[in-house]
Specification:
The protein contains four helices and no strands. The mean pLDDT is 78.
């Protein structure tokens, strides 16, 4: 994210952004989710358009939940496969 938005996102090595060099009081966001929900960084039409603002905030706040929930079945399949390959019975490996 910092490579795509170097003027507002905190860099991986420098821990600063271009806007902070010009304005020392500017607080660089750490990630894209933080940048999309910050009112002083986002475009004005995002703040004025309630539908766009709602969709952006919905996607930002639902992404971590969706990422975790979608990873649980994959983890369970891998664990079951490893247990069967290591000699556990099919009944024991849920």
């Amino acid at each position: 994210g910092a490579l795509a938005f170097p003027d507002v996102l905190q860099g991986q090595v420098t821990n600063s952004c271009r806007r902070q060099v010009w304005d020392p009081s500017f607080n660089c966001p750490n990630d894209l989710m933080q940048a999309l929900t910050s009112p002083h960084i986002t475009q004005e039409w995002w703040q004025d358009n309630s539908v766009a603002n709602f969709l952006i905030k919905l996607s930002v706040y639902s992404f971590p939940v969706v990422a975790v929930v979608s990873g649980i079945p994959v983890f369970s399949i891998v664990v079951k496969y490893n247990m069967i390959e290591n000699g556990f019975s099919k009944g024991f490996s849920f």
